[in-house]
């Protein structure tokens, strides 16, 4: 498995605050990758480092084997849709396309114009008067028409209403199907990712809590509920992610590659939502254990 | 990148062209009148014998435009820095569009180089053209007033240096501060500070002044003045056209000005004539006073001479080039900082 995005001991510090600390991860080839985590986990910092808008305090990051912002060719290989999908509000849609054509050697103007037509955007309309959803779509067209090898999207739908969000993700799915471009997409909303991603990375406090194929992850996690019992009584091949107990009953979320054989359990599948929240909670508990009284998650 | 910069810079160019056209129209309408005024009065005043009246009439004409053009040239570079320089990058930060434009297939350095090149050259062109037009407009008046160093900042080529420095500083401030209004304010403060510092602390020391000593002689303005209840001053005016006079003193061979005691004894006949104020040497309607002043002057001139420290008129363009070079040097320094910063310390991701 080759990595499209790889970091090793990556750190980014602002003043005395670590936005990203000792982050080591690898995003595999050929997937639509979702990067999920709570606010402040370092998702945006990581993606801004990946496109060269930030420089690391220490550690390394490579995208498609190249160092970010290492000259125009590396910039041309990455299509970036930034958080809040910024555009020049005084410039029309058509002028944004002209900007793309002037600033990118591999610009596909036929593709850009076709997508703008499909979206029903008026080329003469100023970007400042577009709705949030339309602006996000414009930003996606700009990132796509430069013919990148990888699309990186930083919380592209965070500020959109549910309908616009669904439409944007729909467009993204079409793009992936049509152009086969690699995609890395961050969000703090699992539902968004579930729709488009086939690979998931859960980032909590700069560290990868969980990564893997969405289908594999769903197939290897279960909810077990039954009479109350202690976690130490579970078989060693069942790693407990989360547990809750009442007087009589216990519920565990476990990870295992083997079938559940104990007939005392009622076995239920997990949703992606359960899974991600379970890992985030686990990370938080580990963190509060290490530093009593200091919660990392808000 | 050049086309994109031109696209984004269109409104500013339109404003600049508007200002240039406006100045050109005013200059074209009123300038020829001044030239005509000069040609018909001052140029042939010698034959009519009343040059001081003709000169005064010319220097007082169009006084509104004179101050307006002067002020325009003082504020124009500051405006370039504040409204073109400071928002250039600060607005990209405020709108978040730096994340859009810096992730196109153009490096930040190239992006900055093109922006600085195109808009910087435009700033220089605007400042240069306005100075050129205003200098031409003022030329009849300048020929009469003969104080070229007094309007040093408003003629010649220095405004080009001021404009490019103000612009480049504004850009650097916007890049560093990342907010438009504070960057504008910083640019204003830095520009005014740099201009004042250079004008008062640097410019006088750019070239060693010339020192000249000459015997006293009675001209219009030679006088003995009561400077305070006990103080007395012997004043000899200096007449070096277009020179920049640093100091003008009446001193003896050991470099001391006449003492009050000396003047009281040397000029007692003059001082006893009027009871108040200054006593003019020549011309005077009073024959007694005239003779008294002549005696006073002879006494003073026997022991004292005039020492003038100044920059000759011929150095005017040397000063222009030096000062322009200083501001270009400052512009190069802040631009170097901008290039370093935009690469090394780019977008700090606000959290």
Describe this entry's structure for a reader.
The complex is a heterodimer of chains A (298) and B (351). Chain A is built from nine helices and 13 strands. With 298 residues, chain A is an alpha/beta fold. Chain A has a six-stranded mixed beta sheet, sandwiched between helices. Chain A starts with a strand and ends in an 8-residue tail after the last helix. Chain B has 351 residues and is mainly alpha-helical. Chain B folds into two domains: 2-207 and 315-344, no CATH class; 217-303, no CATH class. Chain B contains 13 helices and six strands. In chain B, helix 8 (158-177) runs antiparallel to helix 9 (180-202). Chain B is elongated, with a radius of gyration of 27 Å. The mean pLDDT of chain B is 89. The A-B interface holds A 14, 17, 19, 40, 44-45, 48, 51-55, 69, 71-73, 75-76, 78, 80, 82-84, 86-89, 91, 95, 98-100, 102-106, 139, 142, 146 and B 1, 3-4, 7-8, 95-108, 110, 344-349, 351.
N-to-C series of helices and strands of chain A: EEEHEHEHHHEHEHEEHEEEEH
Q: How far is the N terminus from the C terminus of chain B?
A: 30 Å
- Please summarize the sheet with the most strands of chain A: 6 strands, mixed
Number of strands of chain A: 13
Name the poorly predicted regions of chain A: 293-298
Mean pLDDT of chain B: 89
**What is the domain tally of chain A?**
2
- The fourth-level CATH homologous superfamily of the largest domain in chain A is P-loop containing nucleotide triphosphate hydrolases
Query: Which descriptor suits the 3D outline of chain B?
Result: elongated
Percent range for helical residues of chain A? 25-40%
> What's the main sheet of chain B like?
3 strands, antiparallel
- The class by helix and strand makeup of chain B works out as mainly alpha
Taking all Cα atoms into account, the compactness measure Rg of chain A is 21 Å
Strand content of chain B: 5-15%
